[in-house]
TrEMBL record:
Its main location: membrane. SUPFAM superfamilies: MetI-like. The keyword Repeat does not apply. It is found in: Cell membrane. The chain crosses the membrane at residues 21-44, 83-108, 120-142, 148-168, 195-217, 253-274. It comes from Phytohabitans houttuyneae. This is Sugar ABC transporter permease. PANTHER family: ABC TRANSPORTER PERMEASE PROTEIN MG189-RELATED (PTHR43744:SF12), ABC TRANSPORTER PERMEASE PROTEIN MG189-RELATED-RELATED (PTHR43744). Residues 84-274 form the ABC transmembrane type-1 domain. It comes from the Bacteria. It is a multi-pass membrane protein.
């Protein structure tokens, strides 16, 4: 008499080996996690005490009770709330712009046929070898001619498209979208824009989301270009506001660390909510690439 199927399944589950990682792998991951988190913790320790904590030996590793006092000074010295709102507007615009525009350019390079396509794509890739600092002067001249100096669009518009984003989306679309699918859509009467928006973009949305998130973080942390084009305190981004906390002669590390910690919290909150989608998008791109 044959055993019951449920009994066989339970026996199979019991006999199935469990893939466990070696202990040294968990130890290594723990060390890497500690090394990654410790700078943020040390920032909070200094921000909750004073500048002397950063230079004391042995170093203090326990937070103090001075954080809210220093945070209040940050909001009193510079318009930090406005700077946070400006950074949210700039970073969100750049993140959404890169997700959409880079996907559109990547779709054109991957699936459309037009003269000079390979040459133009080669030029786009070669621009990644040019340091961003070399583009500051011509970029500032263009912004000045447009009358955008000391405006947020001077920070937003140059960051809406990136060469890496175009390369990323082009490679992802090439490996994800079949030509037969596009031919079938054209037979049904779909235009090029409809093929991109209704077929291609939904399929590569996870990769576009990852690209947009990277663009958001890079724009949030950007200092050089906003420091050059933004002059008025009410238009500062958060990184420029942190710079404004410093005196011309000395640096109050406690005050600077308080501002830096306050500027880091929104990004941490963002990753708490979108961290899983970020990992899924990266893994999907890795397997399909």
């Amino acid at each position: 008499m044959n055993p019951a199927p449920s009994t066989t399944r339970r026996a199979t589950r019991r006999r199935r080996p469990v893939n466990r990682l070696p202990l040294w792998v968990y130890a290594l991951l723990g060390v890497m996690a500690f090394v990654s988190v410790f700078p943020l913790y040390w920032m909070f320790v200094v921000a909750s005490t004073d500048s002397a904590t950063a230079y004391s030996l042995p170093p203090h590793v326990v937070p103090g009770g001075n954080f809210f006092h220093l945070a209040g000074l940050v909001f009193d010295i510079v318009p930090f709330v406005q700077a946070l709102l400006n950074s949210v507007a700039v970073s969100t615009s750049i993140g959404v712009g890169q997700a959409l525009l880079c996907a559109l350019a990547g779709f054109a390079f991957a699936k459309l046929r037009f003269p000079g396509r390979n040459t133009l794509f080669l030029i786009v890739v070669l621009t990644m070898t040019v340091p961003a600092q070399l583009a500051v002067i011509p970029q500032y001249l263009i912004v000045s001619k447009l009358g955008w100096v000391d405006t947020l669009q001077a920070v937003i518009v140059p960051g809406l498209v990136s060469a890496f984003g175009i390369f990323w989306m082009r490679q992802h679309i090439s490996s994800t979208i079949d030509d037969e699918l596009m031919h079938a859509a054209r037979v049904d009467g779909a235009t090029t824009w409809q093929i991109f928006w209704r077929i291609a973009f939904p399929l590569v949305r996870p990769a576009a989301f990852v690209l947009g998130l990277f663009g958001f973080v890079n724009a949030w942390n950007d200092f050089l270009w906003p420091f050059i084009v933004l002059k008025s305190p009410e238009r500062y981004t958060v990184q420029i506001a942190i710079k404004a906390l410093q005196n011309s002669r000395d640096i109050d590390l406690g005050l600077a660390m308080s501002g830096s910690f306050l500027a880091t919290v929104p990004v941490l909150v963002l990753f708490v909510f979108v961290g899983r989608r970020l990992v899924q998008g990266i893994m999907e791109g890795a397997f399909k690439g």
